[in-house]
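Wed. Picked up where I left off yesterday with Two-component system response regulator NarL. The coffee machine is broken again, so keeping this brief.
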Amino acid sequence: MPIAKILLVDDHPALRQGLAQLMSLEDSLDVVAQASSGEEAISLAVQYEPDIILLDLNMRGLSGIDTLISLKNAQVKSKVVIFTVSDNESDVLQAIKFNTDGYLLKDSEPEELIEKIHLALQGEFVISSPLTQILAQSLRSGSKKVSQLEELTQRELQIVKLIASGKSNKEIANKLGITDSTVKVHVKNLLKKLALKSRVEVVLWAVENKISQ
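Structure written out below (tokens, as returned):
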């Protein structure tokens, strides 16, 4: 398994050190740099080209969201996952709006954090479990999307359930005995039918409609 390079961005040195120690227990993860500010993070991201950046939301100086925007504008290819204490709905939605690759809470269990990092590296949008219901409620109160369950084919419904359970396209393909490209076509079609824009919205839609594996 290739070793993933990680950049930690947080203005609390003790937290960064604790995270670095946790990552050091994983052979496949390597903390290549640490930043105490958004400005430093942008410079280090360009220098080290990490595979994933764990980014605090509330920092002195450049905020996490502003740092996220600046990283995207600088065409940094790294996955960027917000890592914060805030479970505020507006913070989560704003991070998603600016194309974060995940939103994880600092009180996550170490095992869950490591698991989510690996999923993010595989291209999955990751979010701490307690936030799923918060976002589902947000969709219920603010969304006008028409997303009828009966619009989906049986295969598309299977794929929705697998996406909701955190499976990647490759894992879905293996489970259903189809190719990755076929899965991508199904995902594209079901997104159009449900008037959704991303896999994370599929997860939230599945939660809202009580669709389980």
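Quick read: The chain has two domains: 4-129, 143-208.
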